[in-house]
Each structure stands twice: as C-alpha cells, then as structure tokens.
Design a protein that fits this description.
Layout: E1 10-15, H1 19-30, E2 35-41, H2 44-54, E3 58-61, H3 71-78, E4 87-92, H4 97-106, E5 110-113, H5 118-129, H6 137-148, H7 156-166, H8 171-178, H9 182-196, H10 201-210
Parallel strand pairs: 1-2, 1-3, 3-4, 4-5
C-alpha cells in the first residue's frame, strides 16, 4: 500500500545580474528538497522570456539589474498578464521606503533582504508560491512606520515641483515651467527628498503616488 504522493516542489526562476550571487543562490536552493530551480536570468528581459517559456511558480527577483529593465519594471510585466502569472519574491540588499513601495506597487508578493538566513528564504519561497506575503523584519518595520506616520507636509511650491517630476521633466524644464532658477529647483528637490524619505527622483514620484500627494 503506497502512501500519499509527495507534494510537487516549488518551481523557481532566479533573476540576478551578478553571476557569483546567482551561483550561490542556485547552490543554496538546490539544497532544499521542496524547491526546484528551473532557470536563471541575468536581465529583466531574459527573465520575462524564461518565465513565459518555463512557467515557474515563483520568480526570485533582484531590484537592480544593471542595463535594461530593472527589477521593478520586470515585476510589473510578470504580474500584469491576464493568465496565471508567477508570484514575484524580491530578494535584494535595498530597503529604502521608495524601493519597497515601488516593488509592492508593481505586484511583488514578498520582499526579502539578502541578509536573511537560508531557512527564512526557503519559508518565504513556500509562502510566495501560495500567494502569501512575506516581508523581512526590517522591511515590515518600515512599512508599519510608514502606515502609522502622517502624510508629509509639502508646500505648494514643492507640490508644483513634484507634479513636474511626475511628468518626467528635468531641472531645467521645471525651472522654465515654474519661472524659477535651477538652483531653486535643486533646493526644493532636496527638501522634498528629505520629507519623503527618498534619495532619487523616481523614489519621490513613487512615494508621492502612494501617499496621493499629486492631487
């Protein structure tokens, strides 16, 4: 009399642009009996092509992928299809508010830091395969702090500049549109970054959209 069949292992596609990091991840994941690595990608474009071909359960996604599409854009494409799509588990060294916000808004199921123990990674992969959210403790703390904190108070001028940023304008074009100097634009941008807890233009726009600061 045979016992129940063993559960099917979770099929994983690993996307990381660092060859050494990717090799380490593959070796680590191969040690888990309930996880099967079906492919590896070094770029976002390669990940999209392999996901369409291999139909993994989970894509383990780095955020920074060198040239081409970044991890956020790739995540958005992977999770946007009408059919059953893979769950995306972000595995990265970046834990800024802007990075977390962008990844979650793009459709990531979980957000894990590379400093986590192997057991935590294995557990997060199993959770992601079932569509359950897993966040590293530092990431969860940042998310909770953001939810508890009031919206940042921006001046009318800062909101004007943020709106121009959201349209993709550079400092010179913003200065022309608002009849101010580029130096003034840079000063306001510094204050905006400080208030939103970001350090990039894309991060400022992502947080502004999340906080509904653009009107």
């Amino acid at each position: 009399m045979t016992g129940p069949a063993a559960p099917r292992p979770v099929r994983i596609l690993v996307c990381d642009d660092h060859v050494v990091v990717r090799a380490g991840l593959l070796a680590l994941l191969d040690s888990a009996p309930d996880i099967e690595v079906v492919g590896e990608a070094g770029t976002g474009e390669e990940a999209l092509a392999l996901a369409a071909k291999l139909a993994p359960d989970v894509v383990l996604m780095d955020l920074q992928l060198g040239t081409g599409m970044d991890g956020v854009a790739t995540t958005r494409r992977l999770t946007a299809g009408p059919d059953a799509t893979p769950h995306v588990l972000v595995l990265t060294t970046y834990d800024t508010d802007a990075d977390i916000t962008r990844a979650i808004e793009a459709g990531a199921t979980g957000y894990l830091l590379k400093a986590e123990r192997p057991e935590e990674l294995f557990s997060a992969i199993q959770a992601a395969a079932q569509g359950r959210t897993t966040l590293s403790a530092p990431v969860a703390s940042r998310v909770m702090a953001r939810m508890r904190s009031p919206r940042p108070s921006l001046t009318d001028r800062e909101r004007d500049i943020l709106a121009q940023l959201a349209q993709g304008l550079g400092n010179r074009d913003i200065a022309r549109a608002l009849f101010i100097s580029e130096a003034t634009v840079k000063t306001h941008l510094g204050r905006i970054y400080d208030k939103l807890g970001v350090d990039t233009r894309a991060g400022a726009v992502a947080v502004a959209k999340e906080q509904r600061l653009l009107g």
